[in-house]
Amino acid sequence: MLKSVGSADEQVDRVDVEAVNKKENRTLYQARIKVFPKRVSGTFRRLKWYVMALTLTIYYITPWIRWDRGPYAPDQAVLVDIPGRRFYFFFIEIWPQEFYYIAGLLIMAGVGLFLVTSTVGRAWCGYTCPQTVWVDLFLVVERAIEGDRNARIKLDKGPWTGDKITKRVSKHAIWLMIAVATGGAWIFYFADAPTLARNFVAFDAPAVAYATVGILTATTYIFGGFLREQVCTYMCPWPRIQGAMLDEDSLTVTYNDWRGEPRSRHRKSVSDGLAGDCVDCNQCVAACPMGIDIRDGQQLECITCALCIDACDSVMDKVGSPRGLISYSTLQDYNASTRDAPKHTGLSSFIRPRTFVYTALWSLVGLAMLYALLTRDRLDINVLHDRNPLAVVLSDGTVRNGYTIKILNMKAEPRTFSVSMEGLIGGSMTLSGNDAAAARSFDLDVAPDVMRSIKVYVSAPRSTLETEETGFRFVVTDKAGDETAAYDANFARANR
User: Fold this and answer.
1) Sign of the dihedral through C-alpha 310, 316, 322, 327
2) End-to-end CA distance of the chain, in Å?
3) Interatomic CA distance for residues 317 and 308, integer angstroms
4) Nearest-CA neighbor of 167 among 176, 181, 182, 156?
């Protein structure tokens, strides 16, 4: 049984506080307000069209590009061959042990993103991020079917009529087709595209291919069609990180309130100097895909797409005011500008210590990778000494050790190698399963892009072995070229 503690007044006060807290908790989170971005035209909108066309073309076309590597390697230019444990990129072939190239590319991508952000803000988010590109593509479909901003708002608020159902079904059907194409294009990077396409249509492709297409279809359809700006605001970590990349010399989309305030809808007040250039038309808000008002200052949601600049410039042209009320500007220039003495950014955003450090680091990693790529060996050798027994004594008194030699041919062509030994006075080799006489070298054929493992027995007179272990070297040489690989091994002397 519960007991009430305290006076009646204290209990009433406690109830009132709890009621207030419950009421406040109910209003902590606001339901999503749909954003209906208006289509605008201008420099940055055209740039976004070009970037969208370029990125989508690269994404969809790349798996179908052919690259002749000879009869022993796939002819797909870009291929992530998981079963064969290879990554092909035009003339470059990456093996699993060369994963440091992928790590280097990731480092370059990260440093490059820091460089871009520190100079021109979130340009990646506004122009090339997959979420931005596919949302733009989905909006093209939406506008073509439902109309521009006002028509879409009216349709969304209107009752469900035959016309509304037809438009919504058509829109979502095209969205799904785009989403399926997105997932379908992705799987072609992991297998021969023409072959996988035929098998996929014939329902003869691996189950993982259908599962991948299904997952990417769902994510593209949901993220691009429904969540949109919510992904950038709540799911992506970059808005939180990018603050550390910006400083007073970074270019960002800025509302120049020193010129625009106070706002007025009457041009006479503006022309008389009683108000700023902002006519409070809200076109910048209507054009924003994130649904924010750039006049409120820098905000986490802003992806720096600069569509508000195009929208504002078109209004300024109509009212006879100079462009640039909303523009790319640095915090340093913004603070130093006045209506009578505006300050415009030159190259200071790009030429400063931070950008030099990022550029130098990016270049250093790139040059190191290029050097490693141009000087890397396409031949590798690894040797395993038999552990049990380490050595045996033959009937003629010689000591024999067994070794497993693994020769890796990393070229897409068959090669013949000469396997020889250096050191170990009086030593000789015999290839397991080969009746040839013992010798200090033999020839070995290795298929293209494979590792061949062989068992070799090395023998040496006991009288030449002065210590428990004697060092010598296996040398593998390409007979058609000058590429050589070596491995330092030890020869164990038998105890008796």
Assistant:
1) negative
2) 89
3) 14
4) 156
For the chain, which residues score pLDDT lower than 50?
1-6, 8-15, 17, 20
User: Rounded to an integer, what is the distance from CA 325 to the centroid of its chain?
Assistant: 35
Q: Using an 8 Å Cβ cutoff, are 419 and 446 in contact?
A: no
Say what the pLDDT of residue 472 is: 93
Domain boundaries, the chain: 43-242, 248-336, 379-492
- The residues near 136 (Cβ < 8 Å, ≥ 6 apart) are 48, 52
C-alpha 12 chain-centroid distance: 58
Classified as helix, coil or strand, 118 is helix
Residues 442 and 419 sit within 8 Å (Cβ to Cβ): yes
Bridge partners of 453?
Answer: 406
**285 contacts 293 by C-beta, under 8 angstroms:** yes
Q: What is the pLDDT of residues 88-147, one digit of tens each?
A: 999 899 988 888 899 999 999 999 999 998 888 888 999 999 999 999 999 999 999 999
- Report DSSP letters for 435-485, one per residue: -SPPBSEEEEEE-TTEEEEEEEEEEEEGGG--SSEEEEEEEEEETTSS-EE
Please tell me the CATH superfamily of domain 379-492, with its number.
Immunoglobulins (2.60.40.10)
Compute the distance between CA of residue 265 and CA of residue 315 in angstroms, rounded to an integer. Answer: 12
For residue 337, count other CB atoms closer than 10 A to its CB: 17
Sorted by sequence, the CB contacts under 8 Å of residue 271 that are 6+ apart come out as none
